[in-house]
Amino acid sequence: MLSKITEVQSALEVPEEIAGLRMTRQRQEIYRILIEERNHPTANEVFMKAKDRLPNLSLATVYNCLDALVQHGIIRQVNFERESSRYCPNLREHGHFHDAETGVIHDVDFKPGANLTDVLNLPQGAVIEDVEITLRGKISNLQ
Amino acid sequence: MLSKITEVQSALEVPEEIAGLRMTRQRQEIYRILIEERNHPTANEVFMKAKDRLPNLSLATVYNCLDALVQHGIIRQVNFERESSRYCPNLREHGHFHDAETGVIHDVDFKPGANLTDVLNLPQGAVIEDVEITLRGKISNLQ
DNA sequence: ACTGGAATTGGAATAATTCTTGATCTCATT
DNA sequence: AATGAGATCAAGAATTATTCCAATTCCAGT
Predict the structure, then answer these.
(1) How much of chain B exceeds pLDDT 70, in percent?
(2) Which residue positions in chain B have pLDDT lower than 50?
């Protein structure tokens, strides 16, 4: 069990409020886990990790918190096929490369100045509000 | 409403076997629905449609058939966020634009010669095996 | 027609997520 | 410090999409 002081100190890394969302202990802890790990955990994985520090935490609360963070644009929800949703604190517009061999998910940035309309024939008048790009494959060591 | 003759003719368009998959009545019917409608139905929507012709059809069979078709590369499974999977007989490599206002899903083709690596910074050595591009937005009529 | 393997069916089971409800916390105001 | 309103949390029930399972049924090759 952690001391009150340790808990408060780590909590201080995250501000009291972000984007108008009150950062409660639970939300802070969950956000901190996403920031520190950066490995696109599922709600359940976040739950496991967070229980160390918040023993009374419930899975429902993890879902609530993750959803609140997503709604306020503080983190992003990422879906791979029909698997559990994963969560990501990287707010840059980016895609994901899922290494099928290791299971590791790499963030994939857009090249500077690149535009999706360079490669896609969008329908006439299409206004994009959200982009989800998911690649699956493997990382080859061969040169 | 289609005439019997049209129905039979359209059914005949589907061969006995595709890509090594035995085309049973159920698989034929399900495939035909995907081909004719081309509106990215869910398994349940396919089930509803197919029941007209195959009254004993079960939802489990629809899932089985769709999966068999997907496994044999005859159709593709498409996922939007956490919604039900949808199915698509368009085998060209393509993405999807989801019109949030009408719910319509448009296929989005790649521009000829375009390559994803033109716009994305992939991890070193990444070999792409599968691409899923999903855009969400609206269609504006304004010029 | 017979037979073995594949396919189908219907219902039960599963897994992820959401909902519900009551308890608890927070914060502004007194 | 007490109060009250509203937000948040916890626990478990409910929901939803999908998969599993066991018992038929179907079909291609003999």
Answers:
(1) 89
(2) 1-12
A133 in reach of chain B (CB within 8 A): yes
In whole angstroms, D14 C1' to A61 CA is 17
User: Could you say which residues 42-71 of protein chain B have a Cβ atom less than 7 A away from any atom in strand D?
Assistant: 42-44, 59-60, 63, 67
Is pLDDT above 70 for A90?
Answer: yes
d(CA B50, CA B32): 9
3-state helix, strand, coil in chain B (%, to 5): 35, 25, 40
Give me the residues paired with residue A42 across strands. Answer: A86
| Residues whose CB is less than 8 angstroms from the CB of residue B64 and which lie 6 or more positions away in sequence, other chains included | none
Interface touch A85/B85, C-beta < 8 Å: no
pLDDT score for A2: 28
pLDDT score, position A14: 62
**B106 token code pair:** 């448009």
CA distance A4 to B131: 47
Provide Rg for chain B, Cα atoms: 17
Per-residue confidence (pLDDT) for residue A143, from 0 to 100: 63
In percent, the amount of chain B with pLDDT more than 90 equals 81
Handedness of CA B40, B26, B45, B58 (dihedral sign): negative
- How far apart are the C-alpha atoms of A121 and B91, rounded to whole Å? 16
Best of B82, B124, B132 to disrupt the A interface (most A CBs within 10 Å) is B132
CA distances from residue B103 to A35, A77, B80, B98, B106 in whole angstroms, order as listed? 34, 21, 11, 6, 10
